[in-house]
Structures are given as C-alpha cells and as structure tokens.
C-alpha cells in the first residue's frame, strides 16, 4: 500500500496560508462554480444583520439562497429544564436538522386573564436564543389553538369560562386572542431572523383549522390573526397547516390585507405505516385533493409529518407496547420510505412531528394521553438518540451539502425492473426521477412497498445497474452530481455528504451493512487509487473509475490525479459508521469528525479544532479540518494526535466511554393519609359556595341544579372537592352523582364520613378513546343504617376531573364541564348547599398546571420544604385498603459525575389488578400520573435540573385508591435510562421548598 503524499507536515506547512478565519464559508470548496445556489455557508444565528426571507415555488429563499428546511418538532414546555433545551437542540443540529418547529402553549404561560409569564421554565426567549446559538432556524407556532395533545389544545383553563365562540371571528374570543398574541409576539419579535435578532423564519397562524373555511366566521378570523401578527411586528412569512392536503387556507382564500407573497400554504400528514407513501407534493401526481395545485406559487410545505404517533391511556394504540411500539412501526426504514417520497414530491419545507416528544408533565396532557409524550420520536423522552436519528442524519447532511436538492423538476421516468426482466409495478417498486435544472444533477428515489427484499434493475445515467432494495424501504441515488472537483456518474449507495477539507474533497455515501455498491466517477485519465480501509475493487476504462465495495463499517478510498489535482477521499459508510460522522461548519470551512457518539460543537481557534461532544463507549477521534489545522481539543482535554493517510488527525488513544453511574435504592418512606374533607366535621367554611345558575360551558346546566362545574369557580386543573350540606335524609335510598371528566376520570364519595364508593370512567378502547366527552352517573345505595343517622348531613365528593378536551373540530369542546354536573337522590329530594375547593393559587414557579386540589397539595405536602416529622415510617411494597388519598415521601441523594449526562427515571410496578394511581412529585414538580391498573406507563423521566444529580432530592407520591383492592405502591425505584460522558452544563431549576 502506498501511503498518501498528503502528510501531516504538508498540511502543517500551509497553515498560515490555508486558514481563512472569518472568511466566506465553504473554504473555497466549490471555487470552480459547480454549485450555483446554496444555503448560507455557516449555520444561522442571532447576528444582528438584516436577512431576507422569501420563497418561490421551489423552496425557501434566505438571503436569496435556496434552503430546504429540514425541521424537527420540539416543545420547550415538554422539557421543564431550560439547560436541557441546549442538549436536545445540539443533538438535532449535529444530526443534520437545520430547523426546529415549536408550538407555544397559551395555557402554559397564562394562569389568569391578563397574566402572561415567560420566566423560568417558561422562558421562551431563552429557548429561542438557544436555538439561534445552536444554529437552527425556527418555525414558531403560537396558536392561539395548537391541539398538540395538551389540555384544551393549548387554551388556558380560564378561557373555558369566557363568553364567545373560540376559533372563530367572535369578538369576545378575539379580545383574549389579542391579549395572548401581544404577549407572545413581544417575545417572538425579538428573535426574528429578518433583523438578525434570532432565527425565526416562519410563523404559523392557528392549527389545522378545518372549519368555517368558506364562512366569514373562519375567513375573518384568519384575516384578523394575520393582521394582528403583522401589527405586532412579525415580518417573516406566515403560513397555516392544513389538516391534510385539502387546499384550505391557501394564499388568496382570506384577506391578507394587501400583502402578497408573504404567506405560504402548508399541510400536515400522518400516513399509516401500512399504506404506501402518498404522492401529495407540488408535482401533483397521485393525489386526488386540491392541495397540489391550490398554491402553485409556494414551495411544497409539510408543516407536520408524522415521525411517530401518540399512545392513549391503556396503551390502546400499540396494544400495550407503549412508545416502543410507535418507534417500531415507524422505524428508520419508515422514515426513508416516507420522507424520501416527500422529497421526491417536491417538499422543501419538511417538519417531523415529533422529533423530540418529551413529557406532558403536571396537568398538561390532554385527557387522551398519558404523561410520556415520547411519541416514538427519533430522540427519545430521555433525550437518547434512537436508531431513527440515523436516516435523518443521513438525509439532513445530504440536504445541507447538496443544495442541488433545493430546486428539482421532474425528469422522464427511467426504466426500473425487478432485476429479472419483470416490471417494477409487479415488483411493488416505485421510482421517481428528478433533476436540478441548473446543475443538471439527477436524483432517483427508489422505493420498495413490499416486505420482501429485491434487487432492482435500474437505468442510471444510461447504464443498467442492479440496486439492492430491502423490503419496505427506500433510497435516494444521484447521477451527474458534482463532488467538488470531480463528478459522480452514479452510485448505488445514497450520497450523504460532500465537503472540502484541507486540500482534498471528501464524499460520503451510505447504505445498509452488507450491501454491494458500485460507485462510478468521471476521471479523464486513470487516477491513482488507494484503498485506505476496508476492501474495494476498482477499474478505470472509457473515462470512468468504477469502485466496487460491500458496505461494512467504513471503506476509505483515496483517488488522486486522473484529471484533477485535488484528491478525493471517498468514504463508504454503513449505517452504524455514518452515525459516527459529524460535520460542523466554521467560518474557515467545514470540519468533519469521526468516532464519538455525538459531536455537539466545533470551533476553530488558531490552528486547533475545539470539539465538544459525548461518548458512551470508548471511541476513536478523527478530524478533518480546514488547511493548517494541527491540534484538537475534546471537551477541554487535549488528546495527542497524528496525521493519517486519509488527510485527517487521529487521536493516538481512543476517547474513554462513560463511567458507571450508581443509583441509590429508595428507602425510609414516610406515610400519611389525608382526605379530612370526607369527614362529617370538616370545616369547609372557607371554601367557595357553588351557587351559580348559569355557565358558558357547552355542557347544559341540569334543571333545578346549581352550576357545579369546577371551572366556573376558578378551579381549572387537577382534583376538586365538593361538600353538599343538607338537613334531612329521610326516604333517601340512593344518591346519583353525575359528572364529566376526560378519560380516566373518577369520583369517590362519602356520606357523613362513610365511604359510598368509587366510580371510574371506563377504560377506553381504540374506538372510544377519541370520544369527546366522558360523562357518567354513579349511583350509590344508601343503606338503612346510614339513612337513619340524624342530620345535618354532608355528602363529600372528590373528582379526579382530568383535563379539558381538545377543540380539534372547533366546536368549543374545551368548554365541556369538568367535575360534578348534577346530584339527585332516589326516594328523596333534599336541598343541598354546595361548597367547592380545588387547587390553591397557581405555583408561581412551577406554573398553573403543576398541582390540583388534594388536601396534601393545598398543604404543600408535595413540596421539598415540607417537614414530614410526624409521619409514619413505612416500607414498600404496601397493601393498604381503603377509599381515599394518602401520601408517601422520601429523600435521596445523587452524586453523578458532573462530566456525565445520566438520564434517570422513576419506575413503579405492582400487581396490575390493584386499583390505585399515583401522582409523582419530584422536588415539588408534578412529573406525572401512574395508573397501576390501566398503564401502560411505568417509567417516568426525571429531567436533570429538576432532578438534582449532585445532592438531595425529595420525592412525594400522592396515592389515590379505589378501595376495592389493596393499594400499593409495590416497588418504586430509580432507573438509569442512559448515560454519556459529555452532556451540557445543567443549572438547577428553581424548586421552592414551600
Ligand atoms: C395534528 C396536530 O396539528 C398536532 O397538534 C398533533 O395533535 C398531531 O396531529 C397528533 O399528534 S392533528 C391531525 C393528526 C389530525
């Protein structure tokens, strides 16, 4: 083997000349002018400069350059630890995303009308600043309605008791909307990319608004939102996400106040993995609805495309498998099959919902879903990269380094067969052929919609080639593509990256391990070819260099001469190897790093590349950088490196993996029972009297009853207590308690301190889970013994009312009642005087959705500063019997190495027949609801920051038991969900003790 002449000393010798710090970007990589338009060379940021944000029918145009927005949906409100926002955003950026899409949830920021809070975990400005610092564009989606599987679809609880019809032009509703938009836009306006304040490039109005599309109720509403957002200084293009490709709210369908060309059409799609990917792009093939042609002047824009799916209570969507089922049914191959089809259909603004799902903590989740919102997303709830990030990384890197993909026309179909002379239709193969009209680079997307693997016969650049197409998978191939100073004739492997580093071009191709690949380069004369790693065969004839290799790890082939003075390093990487290649752009040109599990940042200082990132197992560290680079810093350490024949610097020793993380057992539990509200003598004189006669709820007030709906008395989240006083029970044989909750609601009742029983809403199945209202009547018999007791009497009722319905269909369903609706007696009709009590004032730090109205919550038993001195010492497992509420508290200390990012969860398990549920408070933060006999969630992620990984923590569990079975907890333990050496610095989240 002949070692490359491009030795380290040659590199170092040109240091002074080669480094162009602060220069114009791509390091002169494409000086020959083969790339006409491209994305901005460096990542975007809050640079204080003016930028233009426009579009044409092909793509977004940022500062006049075409950019495919490759976006992942992330919700800051689903990760209550601002430091970790940077972790998630850096992971996405490193994996090839250039954009994030962000809902802002009105309810999360507004405890009461006129009150808007953007501090602490609600610091939207900090989130947007972090996105800009990470180099990500932002698509902002502040509603006012967002859906998103959150309480009331994002509407604040207080809005449920206001007059006016939501999601219409009703002025009563619009007045509140304006209040919200004023507040959120005040933050957003500081982070627009137009003036370099930040990186917001698109802004969404409303969400999947499918009603009133032709009536003034809808049109005036949309026109109002448009005008209001503009009046608030939002000057980036606006859009709406159509619920499917229907052409609703396309440009021209409502009044944009004389503005033209500043509004886009977008649509959402959540195809089932069992269907063939739909053709619904701007090429207009295959689809039946009007979206393809509704907006011919705007680029193909998938505002949401399913990257997973949510799982309702009971795990009904994935047959109890939970989010593992979501990730399994929408796996890496699903992503290639569906997202490459989208690109082939001309989609140029692409957003994957969700890319990091996170946690619907506290009372945030809509009643349909449980606490975890993992979503089966590419980055899991514990912030760990999953195999689904690999295809996203490959495609994202490709879009970044091959801007030819931002401008595509359809090209004539090419011949594709099943490899044995049969037709592609018979073999279930779909082929798309596209061309960039300027560079003449051609792209082919080949898709196999059948489960069997095939080897397809394809004509690529006029040559008949065999391409492996695994079952239910797809790949993108390029022909006539510039690789810098050489041109690719074709490759049967998918291109992933091209860049110029030092004095060579680098091109990366990728595919599944074990696949045979043929890569053909145009080379006027025979080049010198050196196989530096792996095995590959090569021949040169008729101006073409052919390289054959089987994919396995990383195959490196150095091509020198043969018509260009610039060497080309060809890297053929299987999926696993491709997931260890990290490209970062610096002002002096790109840096490519191989080895670590993650490279978060890369900066050039002098001739040293400073890298930050993560390792899990011991890893190589290999760096290709701009000319003259001669040193590497990894997370502040300075590994010794040597120059390689590949033109890189390689650390002489592997980077160490992550040290073991030890977690303590949870012990020394303290216990106390509550619900004094159920006792006859409890003093409720400070509670609110429930005597209203009318309500703005969509639930009718039953004749002869006072309004008992919790929201009407200002109790919008969590549990609510009622006490009904009456004088005489004679004749009463039963009591009927009508109530409305979301799924999983329940009610428990006591008469004069004696339990009457517990009634639960049925566990939903696949069909009923999406039903709008959960209303039921519980009838409890009154035994003669109870009936005989002397008055006055008191009926105590606790309702776990769950959350407000979403309002997806714009029918005010978020205004359905929560809590009791009517109380009658069999055999008697006593007059009841009602008092009601829910959550005390909103937690000023943890926000309005953190706690409800349990006695312990009102007394601060969930808070870390509460002194549980008099509580009883107990051990788990527990088997307490009785209807009602009790609490368990313990403390534990962690001592995780500050250089280790450990993701820790709390796991509860017990005999599934036991009817009880647990609310989990960590340091006062309500991190979720466990329902032992419903599931499917057993492990709850404890986000670092809320979790003190270096010190003391307080865990409080509020257990609500039906009384029909013994109640746990059974086992409660800390679980290590993942760990990495590296991570980001974590600032403790404020957790007031009392
Ligand atoms: C679409 C919503 O826009 C989004 O907020 C979220 O609810 C998502 O679905 C599902 O997770 S609604 C569409 C699937 C009908």
Automatic annotation (TrEMBL):
Domain Beta-galactosidase: 407-581
One Pfam family here: BetaGal_dom2
Its EC number(s): 3.2.1.23
One annotated GO molecular function: beta-galactosidase activity
Keyword Signal assigned: yes
GO BP: carbohydrate metabolic process
Keywords: Glycoprotein, Glycosidase, Hydrolase, Signal
Domain of life: Bacteria
Reactions that this protein is recorded to catalyse: Hydrolysis of terminal non-reducing beta-D-galactose residues in beta-D-galactosides
Protein name in the entry: beta-galactosidase
Source organism of the structure: Streptomyces fagopyri
């Amino acid at each position: 083997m002949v070692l490359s002449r491009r030795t380290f000393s040659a590199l170092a010798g040109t240091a002074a000349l080669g480094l162009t710090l602060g220069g114009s970007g791509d390091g002169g990589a494409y000086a020959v002018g083969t790339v006409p338009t491209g994305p901005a060379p460096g990542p975007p940021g809050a640079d204080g400069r003016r930028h233009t944000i426009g579009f044409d029918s092909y793509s977004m145009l940022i500062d006049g350059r075409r950019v495919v927005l490759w976006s992942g949906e992330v919700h800051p409100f689903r990760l209550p630890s601002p430091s970790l926002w940077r972790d998630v955003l850096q992971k996405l950026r490193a994996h090839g995303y250039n954009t994030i899409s962000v809902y802002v949830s009105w309810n999360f920021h507004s405890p009461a009308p006129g009150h808007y809070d953007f501090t602490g975990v609600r610091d939207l400005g900090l989130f947007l600043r972090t996105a800009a610092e990470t180099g990500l564009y932002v698509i902002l989606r502040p509603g006012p309605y967002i859906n998103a599987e959150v309480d009331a679809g994002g509407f604040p609880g207080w809005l449920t008791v206001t007059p006016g019809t939501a999601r219409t032009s009703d002025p009563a509703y619009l007045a509140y909307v304006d209040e919200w938009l004023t507040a959120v836009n005040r933050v957003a306006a500081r982070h627009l990319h137009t003036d370099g304040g930040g990186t917001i490039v698109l802004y969404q109005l409303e969400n999947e608004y499918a009603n009133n599309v032709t009536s003034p109720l809808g049109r005036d509403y949309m026109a109002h939102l448009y005008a209001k957002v503009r009046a608030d200084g939002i000057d980036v293009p606006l859009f709406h996400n159509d619920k499917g490709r229907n052409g609703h709210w396309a440009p021209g369908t409502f009044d944009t106040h004389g503005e033209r060309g500043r509004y886009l059409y977008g649509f959402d799609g959540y195809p089932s993995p069992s269907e063939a990917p739909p053709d619904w792009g701007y090429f207009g093939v295959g689809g039946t609805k009007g979206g393809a042609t509704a907006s011919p002047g705007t680029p193909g824009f998938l505002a949401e495309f399913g990257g997973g799916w949510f799982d309702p209570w009971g795990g009904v969507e994935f047959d109890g498998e939970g989010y593992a089922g979501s990730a399994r049914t929408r796996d890496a191959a699903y992503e290639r099959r569906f997202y490459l089809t989208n690109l082939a259909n001309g989609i140029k603004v692409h957003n994957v919902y969700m890319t990091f799902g996170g946690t619907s903590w506290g009372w945030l989740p809509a009643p349909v879903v449980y606490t975890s919102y993992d979503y089966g997303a590419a980055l899991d709830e514990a912030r760990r990269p999953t195999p689904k990030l690999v295809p996203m990384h490959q495609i994202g890197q490709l879009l970044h380094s091959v801007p030819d993909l931002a401008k595509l026309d359809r090209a004539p179909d090419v011949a594709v067969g099943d490899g044995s002379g049969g037709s592609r239709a018979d073999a279930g193969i779909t082929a798309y052929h596209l061309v960039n009209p300027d560079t003449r680079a051609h792209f082919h997307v080949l898709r196999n919609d059948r489960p069997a693997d095939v080897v397809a016969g394809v004509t690529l650049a006029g040559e008949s080639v065999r391409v492996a197409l695994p079952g239910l998978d797809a790949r993108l191939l390029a022909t006539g593509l510039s690789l810098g100073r050489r041109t690719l004739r074709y490759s049967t492997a998918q291109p992933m990256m091209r860049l110029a580093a030092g004095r060579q071009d680098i091109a990366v191709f990728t595919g599944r391990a074990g696949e045979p690949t043929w890569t053909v380069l145009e080379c006027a004369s025979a080049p010198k070819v050196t196989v530096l790693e792996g095995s590959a065969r090569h021949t040169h004839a008729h101006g073409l260099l052919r390289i054959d290799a089987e994919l396995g790890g990383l195959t490196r082939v150095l091509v020198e001469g043969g018509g260009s003075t610039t060497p080309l390093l060809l890297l053929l990487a299987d999926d696993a190897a491709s997931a260890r290649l990290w490209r970062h752009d610096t002002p002096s040109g790109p840096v490519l790093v191989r080895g670590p599990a993650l490279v978060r940042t890369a900066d050039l200082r002098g001739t040293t590349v400073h890298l930050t990132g993560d390792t899990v197992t011991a890893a190589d560290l290999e760096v290709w950088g701009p000319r003259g680079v001669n040193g590497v810093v990894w997370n502040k350490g300075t590994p010794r490196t040597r120059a390689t024949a590949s033109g890189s610097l390689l650390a002489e020793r592997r980077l160490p993996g992550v040290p073991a993380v030890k977690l303590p057992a949870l012990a020394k539990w303290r216990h106390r029972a509550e619900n004094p509200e159920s006792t006859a003598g409890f003093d409720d004189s400070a509670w609110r009297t429930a005597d209203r006669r009318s309500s703005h709820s969509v639930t009718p007030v039953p004749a002869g009853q006072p309004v008992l709906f919790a929201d009407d008395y200002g109790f919008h989240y969590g549990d609510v207590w009622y006490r009904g006083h009456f004088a005489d029970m004679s004749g009463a044989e039963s009591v009927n308690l009508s109530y409305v909750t979301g799924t999983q609601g329940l009610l428990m009742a006591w008469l004069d301190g004696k339990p009457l029983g517990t009634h639960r809403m049925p566990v939903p199945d696949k069909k009923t889970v999406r039903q709008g209202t959960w209303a039921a009547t519980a009838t409890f018999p009154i035994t003669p013994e109870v009936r005989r007791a002397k008055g006055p009497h008191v009926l105590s009722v606790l309702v776990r009312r769950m959350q407000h319905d979403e309002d997806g269909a714009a029918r005010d369903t978020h205004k359905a009642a929560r809590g009791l609706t009517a109380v009658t007696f069999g055999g008697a009709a006593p007059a009841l005087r009602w008092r009601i009590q829910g959550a005390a004032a909103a937690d000023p730090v943890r926000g309005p959705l953190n706690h409800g109205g349990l006695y312990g919550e009102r007394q601060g038993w969930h808070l870390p500063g509460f002194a549980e001195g008099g509580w009883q010492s107990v051990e788990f497992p527990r088997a307490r019997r009785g209807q009602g509420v009790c609490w368990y508290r313990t403390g534990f200390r962690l001592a995780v190495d500050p250089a280790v990012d450990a993701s820790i969860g709390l796991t509860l398990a017990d005999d599934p027949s036991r009817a009880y549920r647990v609310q989990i408070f960590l340091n006062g933060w309500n991190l979720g609801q466990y329902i032992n006999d419903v599931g499917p969630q057993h492990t709850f992620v404890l986000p670092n920051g809320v979790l003190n990984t270096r010190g003391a923590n307080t865990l409080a569990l509020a257990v609500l038991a039906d009384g029909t079975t013994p109640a746990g907890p059974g086992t409660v333990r800390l679980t290590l969900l993942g760990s990495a050496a590296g991570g980001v610095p974590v600032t403790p989240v404020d957790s007031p003790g009392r």
